[in-house]
Specification:
This protein is mostly beta strands. Helices cover 4% and strands 49% of the residues. It has one helix and eleven strands. A hairpin with a 4-residue loop joins strand 7 and strand 8.
């Protein structure tokens, strides 16, 4: 019954912003790190950001540093990805991931994955 559900995707113009949410249900996710990946058409799934259970050690891919911010609300078992200054290169399906270890998420080896939410950025 453990589940990750993303929301907040949509279509925006370049320079715009979106905030993605990922709600985790189930006791399995207690003390888990959570992160975001994305997959553009024809490309491999790419790491975007990760945050530890404590929320004090976010880590970002170079391509999104300074533009995206990952945060979490442990009370709601929800992780967010605030995306600013979006460009067409950010167009992708964004996936939420969860694992006990931050390292596993960074290595794209997360145990749990959401179904994804589409983000489309027009030029």
């Amino acid at each position: 019954q453990e589940q990750l559900v993303e929301s907040g995707g949509g279509v925006v113009q370049a320079g715009g912003s979106l905030r993605l949410s990922c709600a985790a249900s189930g006791r399995t996710f207690s003390n888990f790190a959570m992160g975001w990946f994305r997959q553009a058409p024809g490309l491999e799934r790419e790491f975007v950001a990760v945050i530890s259970w404590t929320g004090y050690s976010p880590y970002y891919a170079d391509s999104v540093k300074g533009r995206f911010t990952i945060s979490k609300d442990n009370a709601k078992n929800t992780v967010y990805l605030q995306m600013n200054s979006l460009t067409p290169e950010d167009t992708a399906v964004y996936y939420c991931a969860a694992d006990k270890l931050v390292l596993n998420i960074r290595a794209a080896g997360a145990k749990y994955w959401g179904q994804g939410t589409q983000v489309t950025v027009s030029s």
